[in-house]
Amino acid sequence: MNRSMTDSFSNLNQDSLENLFIQKKLVLDQLLLDSLAADTTLKALGNAMYESGRFDVMIPQLRNLTNGNLSHLTKSPPLRLPEVNQICNEFKADALICLENFYEHVSSSYQIGYDRMTEYGSTKEYTIFIQIAYHSKWKLYQPGEKLKVAGFEVKDTIYWERTGTTLQETYEKLPTIKEALLSGAVENGQAFSGYISPGWQEQKRSYFITNNKEADKAIGFINDNNWKEAENIWMKFANEVSTALRSQVQYNLALSAEMNGDLKGAVQWAEKSFKSKYSKAAEDYIKLLNNRLKRN
């Protein structure tokens, strides 16, 4: 639901915003309360939460709980348990998220530089900057015997920089002010989703090439993301007499265990690798795996 709307909000006209931008000679420093942007940030949140695969999301058609003549900065009193129960029961929801406050500040400037010297003189180069600073406050309401309420604040900036040989050419490369406001709204909603939705974090892993032809046949299965078959090959060398080979294979078995979701097994293999023969790689991997176990 959206509780950020006040009487000061309106669906700002794109042409009017551009006229203002031009009248100000491309130099703006203004707080803008755009109702479409406020609604867009709510939709962006809903899409991001749904796409996480963790939540079902309902955004009602009648989603604005107006704040009347309050300021966009006014801290609204929290909803009461009966109000939250009514909304959640109506939409068969487990919790309610409300956008409590929302505003954007647009600032812009331009500068003239000189690109290069020629026999006819220097070439002018125009650069225009537009920055959108977005700010929002949210509340998550979870009904029950007692109402649980969690508050969140999101704020950041996005910007555009465009360069051209004339001011007109440079201006035409920019998004309109309206488009910039909506882009800020999307960024805002997606940023808040990161507070409550699970996400993927990219990490790098390494493995040992042992220079043993039979053991290294496992690498082909790694490239096909077939960690089980790679593990079957490495298991044949897990008790080798050579401490160097044994340690490297045991390290690789730790990696295959992690890739197959067995963190405890991964720690055990990494510790075996470390004991077979010391390596900084195994020492660091044990710490990394233990940190993952703690977070789980």
How is this structure best described in words?
This protein has 296 residues and is an alpha+beta fold. It folds into 2 domains: 14-196, no CATH class; 215-295, Serine Threonine Protein Phosphatase 5, Tetratricopeptide repeat. The protein contains 10 helices and 4 strands; from the N terminus they run αβααβββααααααα. The protein has helices spanning 14-23, 35-51, 81-90, 167-172, 177-196, 218-223, 227-235, 243-259, 263-276, 280-295; strands at 29-32, 96-118, 121-142, 148-164. Strands 1-2-3-4 form a 4-stranded antiparallel sheet. Helix 7 packs antiparallel against helix 8 and helix 9 packs antiparallel against helix 10. The longest helix has 20 residues, at 177-196. The protein is flat and about 80 Å long. The two termini are 32 Å apart. The model has no long low-confidence stretch (mean pLDDT 91).
Task: Briefly say what this structure is.
By secondary structure, the protein is an alpha+beta fold.
Oligomer: single chain
- Kindly estimate the percentage of residues that lie in beta strands according to DSSP: 15-25%
Order of helix and strand elements from N to C terminus: HEHHEEEHHHHHHH
Number of domains: 2
Instruction: Briefly note the structural class of the backbone.
Output: alpha+beta
Shape: flat
What spatial order of strands do you see in the largest sheet?
1-2-3-4
Task: Estimate the mean pLDDT confidence.
Answer: 91
Count of individual beta strands: 4
Compute the number of helices: 10
First-to-last CA distance: 32 Å
